[in-house]
Each structure stands twice: as structure tokens, then as C-alpha cells.
Predict the structure.
Amino acid sequence: MFEVARNEIVSGQQFLKGQYQINTFGISCDEVMGEEGLFSKFLQLGDNEELPEPWRFLEGAVGAPKFVSGSAPGVGFRVQMISD
């Protein structure tokens, strides 16, 4: 589980304050979660800042918001709110 402390916007996608479940694929949970993880770094970006290369938000993904690596197919993570 991962806690978003305040409402944030990442790549135009709103993440409301609350608890989130993060599912990774092709990347370790340690690389994505925690204070130094990718998702924390994404949340620290300004509302209009682009994600660092090679990451991108997968528009039109079915279900929870999904972030994928443009340089490594099959690598990414999905972020789903489970409680506020």
C-alpha cells in the first residue's frame, strides 16, 4: 500500500489523497514504492511537468491508471485507490 498525502496531478491524471494499491510488472516493488520510488518522484513533479524519460502515462488503459516504460516493453506499474 502507498499513501498519497494530498491531492496530486501526474501527467494530467488526478490522484486524490488516500491509500493506493500499486501493482508492478517487469519492475520490482522497491523501485516503484517508498519515499525514493518512482511513484513518489512522479507525485513530486509539478502539475504540468512531463514524466522523466523513458516513462509515460498510458492513456486509455482499462482499469486503474498505468505508467509504462517507453524503452522496455512489459515494464510498468498500475496505481489504484483503495480508500480515502
